[in-house]
Write a structure and sequence with these properties.
Blueprint lengths: L7 H18 L13 E5 L2 E4 H19 L5 H7 L1 H22 L5 H9 L13 H10 L4 H22 L6 H12 L1 E9 L13 H10 L5 E2 L2 E9 L1 H4 L7 H10 L1 H4 E2 L2 E8 L3 H13 L3 H8 L4 H4 E5 L8 H5 L5 E8 L2 E11 L2 E2 L2 H33 L4 H7 L3 E7 L11 H9 L9 E2 L5 E10 L2 E2 L2 H33 L12 E7 L9 H7 L7 E6 L2 E11 L8 H29 L1 E3 L1 H10 L2
Antiparallel strand pairs: 1-2, 1-19, 3-16, 3-18, 4-15, 5-12, 5-14, 6-11, 7-8, 7-10, 9-10, 13-14, 17-18
Helix pairs in contact: 1-2, 1-7, 2-4, 2-23, 4-7, 4-22, 5-7, 8-22, 9-20, 11-17
């Protein structure tokens, strides 16, 4: 057996796995899978337990809830395919675990112990491993110590296997060079933008027949999309603000609750470096006082990131024993060394932030708005059940508007509309799915308001009459006619240049540009022109229409990488290697799955889903 053979990459991966597992375990216990239903399936000899699946599914659901900002029920999770993604991940992990078992790849108890001892979530108040806290955390998650430690063992062995599969993947030199050349290539060109003022002949007014023909040829532009005519009632906190009164007692109570916001003590922007001994700290402090860059140099020497030493803006009390010395500085500088709970430390003060207090009288507008909105939301919350009951009892939206503070409205809703009540995502979602005959239901809007809607009719897509959109048609016809005329002029110029005429011989002011990279920006040159430039050969001319103008361009030269691109090649090689490693790993994972064989128990999977309902 391979024991203890793991590098820095493996250690980092296990830390990530442990961190995710601890987050997923927090506050969630898995039970109720009694009897013989203990697994949802297996890959080779590696079983996937119902508890594993339940925890992973819970973790993914929580992550999605954090992303969208609202609870997600099990039915919605299944509709979104979250369960399928979780099973796919677990199957991949189980396949790798099965492969490590087949190869006899594992790690010893000492390595498992090191990984567990390194997890901060298992530390007590003194910073050392808390045996009882470790046991309690796992118990709350429905895990035994043996199960968790076995998971750590699997995770570590799996990481070693992954490292063996992808560790030696490098990007081919030819591919790196090709991508580098493409990414760093620059181009120089000459540009001319022709506008309406450059027309050789003035544009004539369109005839009725020309407008009708243009309208008919571009009928999609003037077609009203499917429209849902919707009657709705709604009430939002903002609509009640003028009716909500807030007394001074409530304002003062709110002011005191937010006292830390309105009364901010003196603070300092501070960084801290901790040393092993006082002598080292004193020597470092002297070096810092003599050389302003020494603090940053020490950060680099220790292979730290700036955020590792940054304490942010802190008060004197937050710094504990170091507070007095740090706040004794009257300007940015070095303080210390001073003994802290972490050891002797030196502090760099980057800025002094004066104490700030916002008087009650100045805070009143902000406080009143907050309290008024809060009370308005509570009023609306109290109305919610009444509206629900009224709708369930057969009341119409019109009756509800007459009997409550909800306001009645009518909206011709089309997809993409964001005006008025359509500015609320939840209203748009409801409007999108509402169908004829649907019973009105109460919707809770994003700001705490409520609404209900009823579909009156669906108007199919239909062209808007030419008389209604005549001005739009005239403007579009003119733009197209100008572009056609200018395009003909530009084509004539290209024909003359192909016979030897110089670009500068036509009397127009030319813009000489370059060298420009692919992602460059040139004032007065639209993106579509730059895209075309990188598809041309030196000496080639092209006519490009865009942004209401016609552009005539000549590619002058293809240039290599510019200054500042030296470090890009290494980054490209690294990115390519990473992408290739991912592909190799996916192919490997797929191969071991096929070789081991996968079997899943749908009944057990459904039993897990039932626990979430």
């Amino acid at each position: 057996m391979a024991k203890g053979a793991k590098g820095k990459g493996a250690n980092i991966f296990v830390w990530i796995i442990l961190g995710l597992l601890i987050v997923g375990l927090a506050g969630f216990g898995v039970g109720g899978f009694g009897g013989s239903v203990r697994t949802i399936g297996k890959v080779g000899d590696r079983e996937i337990t119902t508890s594993e699946y339940a925890r992973a599914l819970q973790q993914e659901v929580r992550a999605y809830e954090a992303q969208v900002g609202e609870p997600v029920g099990v039915n919605q999770a299944l509709t979104l395919g979250i369960d399928r993604n979780v099973r796919s991940q677990l199957v991949t992990m189980a396949a790798l675990d099965n492969e490590t078992m087949r190869l006899g790849l594992s790690v010893g108890d000492d390595i498992v112990g090191e990984e567990i001892l390194a997890v901060p979530a298992f530390n007590g108040l003194d910073g050392s491993f808390d045996r009882e806290g470790y046991r309690f955390t796992l118990e709350q998650a429905g895990l035994s110590e043996r199960e968790f430690e076995e998971q750590v063992r699997f995770d570590t062995a799996r990481t070693i296997l992954q490292g063996a599969v992808i560790g030696a993947v490098t990007a081919p030199e030819a591919l790196t060079q090709a991508v580098y050349d493409w990414a760093t290539e620059r181009r120089s060109f000459t540009h001319l933008a022709l506008t309406r003022s450059d027309l050789e002949e003035p544009l004539s007014e369109p005839t009725d027949d020309e407008l009708q023909a243009f309208y008919d040829a571009n009928i999609d532009r003037y077609t009203q999309p499917e429209t849902k005519v919707i009657t709705y009632v709604w009430l939002t906190p903002d609509m009640l603000l003028d009716t909500v009164e807030v007394d001074e007692v409530a304002l003062r109570e709110a002011y005191e609750r937010r006292s830390s916001e309105f009364r901010q003590p003196e603070r300092r922007l501070v960084e801290r470096l901790v040393f092993a001994t006082t002598d080292e700290a004193e020597a470092a402090a002297e070096r810092m006082r003599a050389d302003e860059s020494a603090f940053d140099a020490l950060i680099a020497e220790r292979d730290l990131d700036p955020q590792d030493v940054d304490l942010g803006d802190v008060t004197e009390s937050q710094l504990g024993a170091a507070g007095e010395m740090v706040f004794a500085l009257e300007e940015p500088g070095i303080a210390g060394p001073v003994q802290t709970s972490l050891g002797p430390a030196v502090f760099r003060v980057n800025a002094l932030l004066a104490a700030r207090e916002t008087p009650f009288e100045e805070a009143i507008p902000d406080l009143r708005d907050e309290l008024a909105l809060d009370r308005a939301r509570r009023v609306i919350g109290d109305l919610y059940d009444d509206v629900e009951d009224a709708l369930a009892g057969g009341s119409t939206l019109e009756e509800i508007a007459n009997e409550t503070d909800l306001e009645l409205g009518l909206i011709p809703w089309v997809e993409g509309m964001t005006e008025g009540i359509a500015g609320y995502t939840r209203f748009r979602d409801a409007a999108e799915v509402v169908a004829p005959g649907d019973f009105p239901e109460t919707i809770v809007l994003e700001d705490g308001g409520i609404a209900a809607l009823r579909l009156e009719e669906i108007q199919p897509p239909a062209p808007r009459p030419l008389t209604e959109v005549r001005d739009e048609v005239v403007a579009s016809w003119e733009a197209a006619a100008i572009a056609d005329a200018l395009g003909e002029q530009a084509d004539a110029m290209i024909s003359q240049m192909s016979e030897g005429a110089a670009f500068s011989s036509f009397g127009y002011p030319l813009q000489v540009v370059g060298p420009v990279p692919r992602d460059g920006f040139v004032e007065g040159v639209p993106d579509e022109v730059l895209v075309e430039i990188f598809a041309m050969e030196p000496g080639e001319h092209r006519v490009i229409r865009g942004d209401g103008r016609v552009h005539l361009v000549q590619l002058d030269s293809i240039d290599g990488a510019g200054p500042g691109a030296a470090g890009l090649r290494g980054a490209i090689s690294s990115d390519l290697a990473q992408a290739m490693a991912q592909d190799v790993f996916q192919l490997f994972a797929g191969a071991v799955q096929r070789e081991a064989g996968i079997s899943l128990n749908e009944a057990a999977i459904n039993a897990v889903h039932a626990q979430f309902r």
